[in-house]
Fold:
Amino acid sequence: MAPPIRRRRPVRTLVVLGLIIVALFGTIAAGVKWSDASWTPNLALDLEGGTQIILKPVTENGERPPKGTVDQAIGVIRQRVDSSGVSEAEITSQGDNIVVSLPGHPSEETLKLVRTSAQMEFRPVLNEGAPTPTTTDPSPSSTIPANGVEAAAPDPTPTPKDAEPSDEPTKAKPDSPSDAAYYITPKVQADYDALDCTDPANRKGGANGDPEKALVTCSPDGTAKYILGPVEVEGEHISGASSGLKPLPGGGTSNEWVVNISFDSKGTSQFTDVTTRLKTQTAPLNQFAMVLDGLVISAPRVNDIISNGKAEISGNFTRESAAGLANQLNFGALPIHFDVQSESQISATLGSEQLRMGLIAGLIGLALVVVYSMFQYRALGLVTVSSLVVSATITYAVITLLSWLQGYRLSLPGVAGLIVAIGITADSFIVYFERIRDELREGRVLTAAVERGWARARRTILASDTVNLLAAVVLYVLAVGGVKGFAFTLGLTTLLDVLVVFMFTHPVLELLSKTKFFGEGHVLSGLDPRRLGVPGTRYAGRGRVVTVPPATADVQDATETPTTVEGSRVPVSVGAPNEAGLTIAERRAAAKKASTEPTDAPVDSASQESEPESGRTEGNEH
Structure:
């Protein structure tokens, strides 16, 4: 019993692909009408130009900061720029200066973040919570427990709905910097409740706030939000920080990574007072926050009074995270300020010229692919052209959508990645077409050749695209600068190539295989059996067998002979009976092997001479 044939629905697949394309452009259209989206993708610095700011980092005493501090400053600026939604920014060091190049027309807020100097501060923690916005019960009877003291109930007098919460404390003066009842005013509480630290826009940093007031802020990774008290120790009083394995009391070291901090004389005195007070508090009031660039990089709790100016921070540190925190503390230990040396607009004249030449090269390459496809595959090459058009349409829509939703900017290396993708996409079609031709050479009808060829070709296509995708991912992770743009577009177009081949090319060939033009192997179809080197007889569908002369004969010499077996249409295979199902390479290997093997029985010379030299046709015996 023959296995059941899986029902194909190529039209449904094409409709789904069409809906995907419509959804992509519909989303862009909605963004253009109701948001700030555009019908064209944003361009990077090398294509659009932008603003260049040259900063000179200097210490408070006017000395040149060490190299590590400059690198840390670049990291802080990059964090600010990335959090503000600006992509493809270039931040480098040139000598003693830091050069920041921002593409397009950055907002004044972004420019202010670049110019602002980073600072390190130590503040007590007054409250810590989940990063998402919270709601509170505004009933008049509610109180705020803080430091064991209950705050006075708010005035029950109703206030206008849109009135700004009061920023006045509920008592005359604080008992200590950890006095939550004094520092957590209604406005501070409202800001804390509304803060969403999962939004990168709220993790830009750049402002540490008033040192005498509470600060509402986030952790850099967006996992927590805090209300902090006033500044108690400035970062300039850190004399040094290092990371290492925790030493054991009896000598040796454990496998726990810790960060060690030491303070100068003034910092030692201040930190002694802080730890003495916080040791007696309950969580979260027993924590102190290390604030760098307005964000809490760490908030450890106090276990002991530290009076010698040497503190040890322990926790779930890895070697990398401990070293990173130590570097941040050292950066705060030597506060630097940024002197703006210059701020100017840079043009994209050179980049625009390179883009124009790149597009010309891409068009030339595309034209050559089209010419080759039409010459090699005749009308079948139109499938290649239409597949490239569909792939280009989807790629344009996805890049434009990413520009709006993720701030992606197309750079010149990214354009190079798109041009390279033309060859990757065309290669997938060639693999598929050649597989179909191999099946036709074995005597199969086109509908069967399309399915069998697809079963073989898709493995090759997926393997090839997987290799390309892995190369793009590795390149994106390891590369820096504009090379990342090339790797991104290369990986994106590789994924889209799989989508187009599976949801457009294959379904279209399924439909074309059922047409008379392609199914009967028209001379212009690209599936002409004479051009494929299949002389002899082959099944042409609809109960007809076509006798195809050798390639040197005229196409008009082909004759058609209807054949049926018990009322059914029977396909005829080309080649010897034992060659059915073999590829060309396999048949050639078998023929070579047969020619080298000695024959055991004598051959009658008369009968051999009378045997026709034409190829044998395997038929059905009745």
